[in-house]
Each structure stands twice: as structure tokens, then as C-alpha cells.
Amino acid sequence: MTDSTLPVSPTPSTAAAAAYPITPEVERDLVIVKRGCDELLVESEFARKLARSRATGVPLRIKLGLDPTAPDIHLGHTVVLNKMRQLQELGHTVIFLIGDFTSMIGDPSGRNATRPPLTKEQIAVNAETYYQQASLVLDPARTEVRYNSEWCDPLGARGMIQLASRYTVARMLEREDFTKRYKGGVPISVHEFLYPLMQGYDSVALKSDLELGGTDQKFNLLVGRELQKEYGQEPQCVLTMPLLEGTDGVEKMSKSKNNYIGISETPESMFGKLMSISDVMMWKYFTLLSFKSLDEIAALKQETENGRNPRDVKVLLAQEIVARFHSQAAAEQAWTDFVARTKNKEIPDNLPEVALTGAPMGILQVLREASLCTSSSDAQRNVEQGGVRVDGVKVDDKGLKLDAGTYVLQVGKRKFARVTLG
Questions:
Q1: Measured between alpha carbons, how far apart are the two ends of the chain, in Å?
Q2: By the 8 A CB rule, do 212 and 184 touch?
Q3: Could you give the CA distance from residue 352 to residue 19 in angstroms, rounded to a whole number?
Q4: How far, in Å, CA of 62 to CA of 32, rounded?
Q5: d(CA 369, CA 287)
Q6: Can you point out the beta strands (E) in 337-392?
Q7: Which of 73, 150, 282, 374 has the smallest number of CB atoms closer than 10 Å to its CB?
Q8: At what angle do helices 218-230 and 190-206 cross, to 10 degrees?
């Protein structure tokens, strides 16, 4: 069974909600909400919620929960944040929920083994920068920030047992990753069953009208819907967004896969990574990340089909994203720098990606650890012979140290790598 086996049959909203007409304004709002989404469950219910909100002036409560499992947010995270921003602009209240309690359990979604829980100290460090970075997308003035420890900690053992009584093991095993692990004899710890329950209880505590998440969160989001029914609340609707592939165009964007674009990266690094995505993947990035209208995007796509260089269109995307997280001036400078770096026609389009830590790091060590040179002496010899370039600029100083950032390194005519140094 898959996540989709969890019942999602329409549940009547309040009689009042059903009485409000679906006006052209409501239909327009629905189009905006559905842009780029994978699923909206149940669409007819959400249309009634929008109609009620339009008629009464009472904003809907839109929930997004993120566990601070890492300190930085990348563009993959902003897919749902962009949708939250669109909902803010429609006048609704968005709740940025930091899962400080659920992080200690560890979300098992999509995993084939028990995920190690984070400590309180790790969570505190990661959460410190989470909202600050998210505010680069969300409007802070229209964002309600909450921590789920507010209601999860007071629940206590008695409350946890009562909550657990509202969901069965059989229903829990309908979740695809649990099913695979159970059939494969891979251990499932009891505490992992608590994660979807606690995420669902968040929706009860916040009286959520709509919860957002990636497609890998569908089961958890639907648990929230079912628990709200158990607690006598109008059930939330669920909107899932596609998972954004990283710069490799294959795997989901992830720091562990080293295919991510962090929103706190330098303008030059961000611009270069965006320019490295394929011409085909560019359109998915436009749909999920750009604030251009769908009509504008369709027009750009038509222009490329009529002969416009896709690279020129990709520049528009890269500049828009860099300007959002830095400034327009920074975006323009990043483009200028990119042109200067890529004047060397020998640089291939798809570079190997290497992540290193220890900035500032000497150029000889970087070349060795990036496997561009076999040893420090080999690296030194290449520098002395003028065969090493960083971002297209020849390196003459074998004592050069590189600060944190992303660089295109070249050794000779055939060895290249994009090195991200942390």
C-alpha cells in the first residue's frame, strides 16, 4: 500500500462554509494556490474554505512545519515557502512551525532505517537561523512563528497515550516506507510511529485549515486531517509540492547529496549553480521558484522553441533568485563575474561537484582533496607551471588560501571541478 490509501474522501465542512458562493475571485485564488502543486486534497473542500474566507474576511490558517535538522535552508525548502508567500499575499495567516519537539523523534519519511534523533542543543543551534532565512521569502509581518514544544511538552505521558489510542498500528503500516521496512525485516522503532501522530497533533493545536509539505510528507499531512476529525474540528486540506531536484538534475536537492543551492550562499556561487542546471530542468525551477506569472514563463518557453538561446533565459532565472536573497546589484555583478569566468570555452557545462570543509584552505590542499592533483607536490608543480585556474583566473601563488565559497577549479586542459568550501 502507498500513502494514497489513507482515506481522503470529502468531509462536509460547516453548513456556513457550503453556503458561500464560489465567485470568480475564489476561482482565481484557487488557480494561484494550485500553481506548481502536486496534489490539493480535497479541492472542493478548500474552494469552500476560500469562499468562506472571502465572504467573511476571516483569513485561513495555513500551516508549514519544518524540523531544524540542519542550520541552513536551500532552494528546495523554498518551494513550499514560496507557496506560503503566495497565500500570504491572498490575505491568509501563515504559521511557520518549527518542530523543535518532533526533531527529537526524527522524521522517518523516505528512510529505510531508524533516523537518529537530534539533541535539544543541536535543535537550538539549527533553529536559530531557520526563521531568519525563511524571512527572506515570507513576509515577517504576516507570519505566525510557533514551536511545537508549546503543546507537545505539556501533553505528558498520559496525553501521549490518549493520543496514540486514536490511531491504529494497521493504519500506520499503510505508510509506504514503513511497509517496505516491515516486509523487509528492517527494524522500526516504536518512537517512529509517534512522529506522524505528533505532526498531526500540531494541526489540532493550531486549528489548521491547510497544511503544506513535500510529496514525501503526504501520509503525515493526512494523519493531521484524520486527527482533527477525531477532535471534532473541521479537517484541514492538504497541499503537496513536488520535490525539487538538485543541480545534478536527478536526486532531490539535499546537502548530503551535495547538489544543493543554499539561500545564504554568495551571489556568485548561487548564480553559477543556477546556470549549471540543465535547459530541461530550468522550466521546473521557473515554475516552482520564480515569481513570474505562468503566462510569462510560457512566453519565455515559446521564445526558446522559436530559437532564443536557453542560456539567456536561464540568466533571467538566476538573476531573479540571486536578487531575491541578496540584491539586484549583486545579481548584476554575479552575471558580470560569471561571464568573465566562462570566457574560457574549455570549461564543460557539467562539472563534478566537490564539498570540502576547513576554510580558509590552501590551494594545494584543495587541489589534492578535490582529486584534481594526486599529491601536494603534484599540485605545487601544476601551480608553478601555470596550469591551475580558479574561476578562470590563473593561480601564481602556491600559498593562496581560499575562503568559504564555491569555485570552479581547473588543472591543465581537462581536469575541472566545482568545489564548495565550507
A1: 42
A2: no
A3: 58
A4: 15
A5: 37
A6: 353-356, 361-362, 388-390
A7: 374
A8: 60
Is 246 inside a domain boundary?
A: no
Chain-centre distance of CA 404, in angstroms?
23
Same domain, 196 and 224: yes
The Cα 149–Cα 227 span in angstroms is 18
Distance CA 82, CA 294 (A): 14
* Residue at 260: amino acid letter: Y
Residue partners of 170: CB distance under 8 A and separation at least 6: none
Return the residue matching grid coordinates 486534497. 41
Judged by DSSP in three states, 312 sits in: helix
Q: All 3 cell numbers of residue 374? A: 594526486
Q: What is the pLDDT of residue 110?
A: 47
Predicted local confidence at residue 10, as pLDDT? 46
- Beta-carbon contacts of residue 124 (< 8 Å; ≥ 6 apart): 100
How many Å apart are CA 167 and CA 170, to the nearest integer? 9
Residue 73 maps to a domain = yes
Q: Per the structure block, which three cell numbers stand in for 32? A: 494561484
Q: How many helices (H) and strands (E) does the chain have?
A: 17, 13
> Looking at 299, 318, 341, which one is the last position of a domain?
341
pLDDT for the residue numbered 133: 84
Cα–Cα dist 263/41, whole Å: 30
Residue type, 50: L
Q: Half-sphere exposure of 413 toward its Cβ, with a 13 Å CA cutoff?
A: 1
Would residue 253 count as lying in a domain? no
The pLDDT value recorded for residue 300 is 93
Q: What are phi and psi of 13, to 5 degrees?
A: -75, -175
- What residues of the chain score a pLDDT lower than 50? 1-17, 110-114
The total of structural domains in the chain comes to: 3
Q: Determine the residue type at 245.
A: E
Beta strand 210-214 with 39-41: parallel, antiparallel or unpaired? unpaired
Examine the domain organization and report whether 84 and 158 are in the same domain.
Answer: yes
φ, ψ of residue 125 in degrees (nearest 5): -65, -45
**Domain hosting residue 309, numbered range:** 267-341
DSSP state of 142: G
* Cα–Cα distance for residue pair 22/378, rounded to 1 Å: 71
Q: How many residues make up the chain in this entry?
A: 422
What is the predicted pLDDT for the residue at 37? Answer: 92
Residues 6+ away with beta carbon under 8 Å from 34: 40, 43
Q: Do the annotations mark residue 183 as ligand-binding? A: no
